[in-house]
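HOLO CASE FILE
Compound: adenosine-5-diphosphoribose
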Amino acid sequence: MDESAFPSDIIERLRQARRVVALTGAGISAESGVPTFREAQTGLWAQYDPQELATPQAFRRNPKLVWDWYAWRRALVASVSPNPGHYALARIERHVSEFTLITQNVDSLHQKAGSRNVFELHGNISRVKCFEEDIVMDDWTEAESDTVPRCPRCGGYLRPDVVWFGEMLPPDVLRRAISAARAAEVFLTIGTSGIVQPAASLPLEAVENGALVIEINPVQTQLSSWMDFCLRGPSGIVLPALVSTVWPDSTRE
Ligand code: APR
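Model generated. Tokens follow.
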């Protein structure tokens, strides 16, 4: 993609912006080989709907099934690397005085790409906590073949430190994400279907406060009609091209 691919309004507003916010979803990790939530799961897990596994009720019903699904995803995430879309966002952070990266992803790929100011709305799959006490474990070992690890303090099951359907998001993280969205001069929504609340409302907070809002996604989403611009393409292609156009000196990084 070359400079002509981007409207001059996007280029100028990004160059001048002091406060830029990016909201990412599973789509930014797709080019790293991590399946998105709403595309078919592969292999052993193809028969399961993620929304049927990522709930406290599913864990109570069958802790081993849910634990093993997350162990499979943990191994997958540990085996992949950030893609050019993740690295492009880390470059933006170096050019903008106040850049906030709000992610729905639990895969640590933004941090691995060098992003520092990352708000994890839905937790992180590499962290594990006690299901009963809701306390994150400093260290733990993967399960034996037929068990789920238990808390050494209370004997309850351990679970991934991610936000399941029906659970509250970490209140402080959500509060700071809303505040950042309301203050944004430019808001990028990248690789998210815009279906799951409250994350899907963050771009609308930015709209209400006069930000320039830009969607990066190969297809239309529930957020598209609110956007000032929709850049239709994979984030691994669009984001590096956008960063190199807005900050030409950044290509040498
Ligand atoms: N680049 C950009 N976007 C992409 C790419 C890509 N290469 N590939 C796919 N996408 C887009 C899809 O078009 C889709 O709009 O990424 C989006 C992924 O949508 P979902 O699978 O719904 O993932 P997400 O929006 O992150 O889901 C939000 O729902 O299941 C819960 O907690 C889970 O955090 C997740 C939340």
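CASE NOTES: The beta strands are 19-24, 98-103, 118-120, 123-130, 158-162, 186-190, 212-216, 229-231. The two ends are 19 Å apart (CA to CA).
CLOSED: yes
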